[in-house]
Amino acid sequence: MLRLPRLRYLRPQDAREASAMQAEFGVKAMFVAGGTDLFPNLKRRQFDPEILIGLSHLKELGGVDGDASTGFKVGAGVTLSQAASHTGLSNAFPGYSEAAGLVSSPPLRNAGTIGGNLCVDTRCNYYNQTFEWRQSIGFCMKKDGDICLVAPGSPRCWAVSSSDTAPMAMALEATVVLAGPDGERELPVADLYRDDGIDYLAKQPHEVVTKLRLPPAGRVQSAYVKIRRRASIDFPIVGAAVALTLDGRTVERAQIVMSAVGSHPVEATKAETFLTGRELTTEVVTETAELAAKPAKPLDNTDLNYVWRKRMVRVVVARALERILDSAAS
Q1: Average of per-residue pLDDT across 42-59
Q2: Which pLDDT score, from 0 to 100, does residue 82 have?
Q3: Which helix (H) or strand (E) holds 226?
Q4: Exposure pattern of 232-263 as b/e (b: 16+ CB <10 Å)?
């Protein structure tokens, strides 16, 4: 049985105090809300803090405010289950509710938070193992070693971004609010990530994600499609988030972002450009899916064969577009 290490638990009064605590203790401290990703990683000794700073009790991180006409403010502590079942969110942004509802399993969605899923650690077959397993192969660059075992000649880590909600938030052009000891700042979700398996978040380590802000829905239609080995629990093998602004069946604006095909959510910019201004037909969907697959670069470091996963990018993008096409026709 894997056990948690001994840890000191701190309970701040608000997000700014939590940020100040982390700034004071540095690498010795980590934030915890739902803990659905953090606790397994701690048991496997992928992280080795001495202190956990609790966030789940902070009221400022709770609640969903707003509507489709004004946009939504979603507290980072809102659980994935709450986000998936919120009527206002699901009506305005069905893609976001779908993404939240496809994370892991129902019990873990009841604990896991939207802020946690935005910041979920990158994954790799050589990293997400027990300490003893990793020790037996000499560790990897992401933790305790100095070589990327999936690409030994590479100077960087290629661990994969596997968040379901991050690509959808990016496609919807959402922003996040970050709290520091001296105040708050806001930035696009797209700017929250780096293309680096180790240093994958662009926010400062002491900053707390407090809110996700979704813009007014307008004429945007969205969908999220995910493929995984086990349909009720696993991380994505590949996921596609699509948000389209439509005038009838003509695409005025397109956003296509993919999960699990890189160390950050990958935007299919050429596919977006191709789709913009075109009528959403079956032929256009097929061509868009082909273009979307080109920037996806899966490696042999997550579940199933990476060549097959590359082919599946076309499938999930096409399914997401077809779902929007069906919705527009109804």
Answers
A1: 97
A2: 98
A3: strand 220-227
A4: eeebbbbbbbbbbebeeeebebbbbbbbbbbb
- The amino acid occupying position 13 is Q
CA 171, CA 241: separation in Å to the nearest integer? 6
Run of H or E residues at 183: strand 183-188
User: How are strands ordered across the β-sheet holding 64-67?
Assistant: 64-67, 71-75, 208-214, 175-180, 183-188
CA distances from 196 to 5, 77, 148, 161 (A): 27, 26, 12, 9
pLDDT tens digit string along 228-258?
999 889 999 999 999 999 999 999 999 999 9
Token couple for 161:
């971004």
Domains in the chain, ordered, with CATH? 59-119+160-329 (3.30.390.50)
Please give the Cα distance from 77 to 119 (Å, whole number): 12
Residues in contact with 121: Cβ distance below 8 Å, sequence separation at least 6, in sequence order = 37, 41, 46, 200
pTM for the model: 0.95
Block residue for tokens 């680096």: 196
Calculate the average pLDDT of the chain: 96
Sign, CA torsion 230/231/233/238: positive
CA dist 327 → 220, 223, 303 (Å): 12, 10, 32
Q: To which residue do tokens 């097929």 refer?
A: 286
Distances (CA, A) of 217 to 83, 172, 214, 222, 307: 16, 9, 8, 10, 36
